[in-house]
Amino acid sequence: MKYLKIFFVIFFSLSVNAQTLKLPEVSAEYVCNTKFIIGVNALETRTFQSKNKKRIDTVIKNIPQSVIIDYEKQIATWVWPITSSYLSVPLKKEDQENLKKAANITKLNKIKSDYIHGFAVDLYELKISLPDGTTEESTRWITKHGITLKEVGFIEGKEGKIKFYSEFSNVKVFEQDYRLYEVPEGFKIAPIEQLDDVNELLKTMVKRS
Questions:
Q1: How far apart, in whole angstroms, are the C-alpha atoms of residue 166 and residue 139?
Q2: CA 22 distance to own-chain centroid
Q3: Are 107 and 131 in contact (CB under 8 A)?
Q4: pLDDT single digits (tens) 2-13
Q5: Residue 30: count of CB within 10 angstroms of its CB
Q6: Residue 25: half-sphere exposure toward Cβ, Cα within 13 Å
Q7: Which of 53, 100, 128, 135 is the most buried (most CB within 10 A)?
Q8: For the segment 162-186, what is each residue's pLDDT rounded down to a tens digit?
């Protein structure tokens, strides 16, 4: 779980900042299937990204669920279709900003241009370091819109070195319907215990978005 948390610090940040090196920022709304593999852990989701909102659909412990992140209102909302319930919690903007600043790009080299999933991409080699001494070295395939379609690399820390892989597929770039980011009519507020029982991984993703 520790390496998953480190991975989401890096992958789900809106932008990764350093003093002199900076990855391209996302400039388009899109929807895609996502797959993350880090060590023996794997997660598959459907992700919707608008200008100021994100929605992640997935299944955890055989329970389908969604999390909707509103960056303007600084709120994350979990939605459980099976029980017609939802729960909203505030995001801590200060924590998010600190997490973004904590990832420092120490190397960023553009290797070449290519095509993947029908998109023109630029390949970057990069190295990122965290305050605890953990480092990531990887190759990213980034579209002209700033969307990272694929990333392969290694994370190395006190507990050793582990390989990770992430990829977006079935990517569609277009303006999103605002209704995707609303709780369905008739859904009721769920007990707080439901969030703790089934959403440890999604909580990590939202905290680091």
A1: 11
A2: 18
A3: no
A4: 444 544 544 444
A5: 19
A6: 5
A7: 128
A8: 999 999 999 999 999 999 999 999 9
Structure token pair of residue 108: 């960023």
What are 143's two structure tokens? Answer: 């579209």
What is the identity of the amino acid at 56? I
**Which has the closest alpha carbon to 1: 204, 208, 209?**
204
The encoded tokens of residue 82 equal 């099976």
Query: How far is 100 from 56, CA to CA, in rounded Å?
Result: 20
Residue keyed to tokens 């299937």: 33
Look at the block and give the residue holding tokens 């008739």.
186
Give, rounded to a whole angstrom, the gap between the first and last alpha carbons of the chain.
17
**Tokens for 169?**
């597929």
The most confident of 83-87, 96-100, 110-114, 198-202, by mean pLDDT: 110-114
Residue 142 pairs in a beta bridge with 122, 148
Q: What are phi and psi of 205, to 5 degrees?
A: -60, -45
Residues 6+ apart with CB under 8 A from 35: 42, 43, 44, 165, 166, 167, 169
The answer to whether 89 touches 100, Cβ cutoff 8 Å, is: no
Domains of the chain by range and CATH? 2-207 (2.50.20.10)
